[in-house]
Amino acid sequence: MTLHKRVFALLLWIALVPSSPAQTNLDAETDLPSAQSRPGGHSGTNAEAPFFFYDHPDETIHATVLENPLFYDAGAFSAKGGWLMAWLELVPGKGDRIWMGYRTTNGWSHKAVVEDAPGDYANPTPIIDAKGRVWLSYEAGNTNGGWDLIVRDCHEDGSLSEPQKLNYGRDVAINHRVAADRYGNLWYTWQEDNHGQFDIMARRVSGIRLSEPYTVSTSSYGDWEPALAITARGDLNIAWDGYDGKDYQIYGRSFDGSKWGNVSRTSSGSFFQAHAQIASRADGFVWTLWEEDGENWGQPYRVRAPGDATSTKISDKIGPLHRFRKLHLEEFATYSYRRIEVPMPSLALAAARTNAPKDVKYTGAFYEGGQITMDGKGRPWITYRHFYTPWVGIVPEHHKQDSYLLYARCLLNDHWSKLYSFDVGQGDGLQRLVVLPEADGITAVWTTGRTDRRKTDKPRGVAFATISLPDNAKGAIPVTSFGSNRNLPEVQPDNSPHHTRAVTEFGGKRYELFFGDLHRHTDISLCFAPSDGSIDDAYRYAIDAAPLDFLGITDHTHDLAMGDELSLIWWRSRKEVNRHQLQNTFIPFYAYERSRADTDHNVISLRDDMLRPHTYPLTQFWSELDTNTFTIPHQPFNRVLWNYKDDVHRPLLEIYQGFRNNSMEKPVKEGLLRGHKFGIIASSDHLSTDASFACVWSEKTDREGVFRAMQSRRTYGATAKIMLKVFCGEHWMGESFSTNAMPPIRIEARGTAPIEHCDILVDGDVKDSLPNNPDGKFTWSPDASITGPHIFYVRIDQADGNHAWSSPLWVDIKP
What is the residue-wise DSSP string for 454-515? Predict the structure, then answer.
């Protein structure tokens, strides 16, 4: 059947699907305002966005926003003068529905729901193969809490086939991409949980036949976000980024139809390099595009020096997960490599600042989310999102946020085209952008909008726009390029284990030690949005760079649609929890920060429906909770917190916070002496990385097991990955008991640096300080004068200034 007939069959099928109530009154689309109403320029005179600046476009392209603000996550495919589109719609309280439709410049020909049973879906992607058959792929949450990659084709009568799973039965398959070869085959690539780590997978779909899935990446570290392109002669090229034990690098691998080549490395150096995109042309040229952030990404970083309540110490060399982003473009043809400089004016402006410290060069300038697309004339297009915040790393501003604007340029042989921008941008780093080839340009389709605490008239939903560039277009900026004699060594398979946990036996039970963070923000939170990084950044850091065993992303309830549990932003956030759970190695929790002066702030839950507003008191909130949710007080502690007691729903407290670089032992002492029973952890809050850990000894290695161990207060807080065990008789730290003769407290610690001493605190005061033993084992017994109820806990002090604090033991010593 011809392409025209296939598309017609699909449209006929769509037209026959009964309309749903959600289609009512969805035809009034938004024609966005002109460029004059959006922020722009480097002068900083626009009152709407005085802290955010943008490159001046040569031309602004008007975008159309689809008719429903609950549409999002759209994919598309150019087809015969229009676009085959697929997207999600959130049905509040129920889940996602998948829509599909055919769109022309005159509006919808048809559109309808193709998956009406609400569920968890992501990345719906339509494509038409070389034989004219229409396919739809998407990722779907499964009944085991994981995610599957689903593909369906459109039959000749227009109906969709039954869902077919491409992943090999493992727990999580996400971030898929698809390309069609000239023989009618489709190639899919995706990121999959492979025995507790992310690997890159690929599979060929030939009609109803599936090849065996192939593991493309070879590292035992995490691999992320593959992209693929198929050359005119049929070679498959896949690019992705992977962690190498210290940094993220760009990798590639090809398949010539009969065998796979070796894994090659495109990037080098000690910078964060990720989010690879790839495109090919008929003459055999292949382009790879990726983005770079600063050095020491995710490595130990404490935001403030002791006694300094204002600085953030951000620089190009050390800082949070989102310091700057710059784009790299490499061209490859017949073993010849060429690096092409992408024009990024704000990087030059940032480097020219005279008020910046010497190690702040690019910090604050962001060019990211890049896409590379080959139009019908064989011209490469670069599309990306951008803003410039010249104060980051120089002035400690916060609670500043604005949209990214989207930009595009075309590579015209030895010149770049003029700079295009769209008049609606993106609100956070996890929103999807898809760029389609057109005969003489591109069409961009993207998700837009924010739901933070500020009032805004900016649209939300799915936007799209087209750029056309004539054959005789003149270049605006000469191309700067240089040869890239990379000669990088071939990447050898790495099968060594990297993820091991300390294990101990106690009371006939086996426990494993989990390191995590229960207080981490992303760009969903308004506070430090440019620097905290995206949800993707947070999970990359937690899984690879730290690495952690668990994470609770605690974005502000203010910025999660003011605590609306049925909102799109919360639905998107809680989907990412299950999308990043790795078998036996990494556990994300449902979490958020319920910021209020008299509340505990951070909420950790086994449930995904416990988002609540911050507008009512803590005790009322506690009354809504069962034993599957608890709260954690937030530094600095408001002393009014100690007036409210609930040891069930407040089992933990953060004694140290990497953001403030401050331990709060005096307030902790006050809370303990006023009768509260909380275990001890440490947290990061904003910006800081690899500097604070919630440490949990758990019998079970799943989400509920770690959650119950935290409720049991079998925890400690640490500023480095110090191993600490504290027992008293038959009891773990965190337990309460009575005794006629208190057994010795037994302590075992394994430091990350030499241990200087082990302090024993009784009722919040240092009672004794034990010098280090070579084996890290300590024993302490109270003297006979200590009777009655007392609180005992341990502090480990290392020579490098790092510490660990155990949860208390509450012991009633009978006289």
Answer: S------EEEEEEEE--TTPPPSEE--EEE----PPPPPP---------EEEETTEEEEEEE
H-only helix segments in 174-312: none
H or E segment and range at residue 367: strand 365-374
Q: Which fold has domain 503-721?
A: TIM Barrel (3.20.20)
Cβ atoms < 10 Å from Cβ of 596? 19
pLDDT for 28-85, tens place per residue? 333 333 222 233 333 333 344 469 999 999 999 999 999 999 999 999 999 988 999 9
Q: Phi then psi for 169, rounded to 5 degrees?
A: 85, 5
**Class of the CATH-defined domain 3-24+50-303+312-478:** mainly beta
Same topology, domains 3-24+50-303+312-478 and 503-721? Answer is: no
With a cut of 70, list the residues of the chain below it in pLDDT: 1-50, 158, 169-170, 307, 309, 484-487, 489, 493, 495-497
DSSP conformation letters of 424-435: S-BSSTTS-EEE
Q: Are 351 and 341 in contact (CB under 8 A)?
A: no
Domain spans of the chain, in order of start? 3-24+50-303+312-478, 503-721
Q: Coil, helix or strand for 381?
A: strand
Contact in structure between 167 and 174 (CB atoms under 8 Å): no
Q: How far apart are CA 384 and CA 165, in angstroms?
A: 32
Considering the entire predicted model, what is its pTM? Answer: 0.94
Predicted local confidence at residue 561, as pLDDT: 95
Q: What is the pLDDT of residues 744-777, one digit of tens each?
A: 999 999 999 999 999 999 999 999 999 988 899 9
Tell which phi-psi region holds residue 617, choosing left (phi > 0), alpha (psi between -120 and 50) or beta. Answer: beta
Using alpha carbons, select from 255, 287, 17, 333 the residue that is nearest to residue 157: 17
Residue 321: half-sphere exposure toward Cβ, Cα within 13 Å: 31
- CA dist 552 and 693 (Å) reads 12
Q: What is the pLDDT of residue 290?
A: 98
H or E element that contains 278: strand 271-280
Taking the C-alpha atoms of residue 247 and residue 270, their distance in angstroms, rounded to an integer, is 6
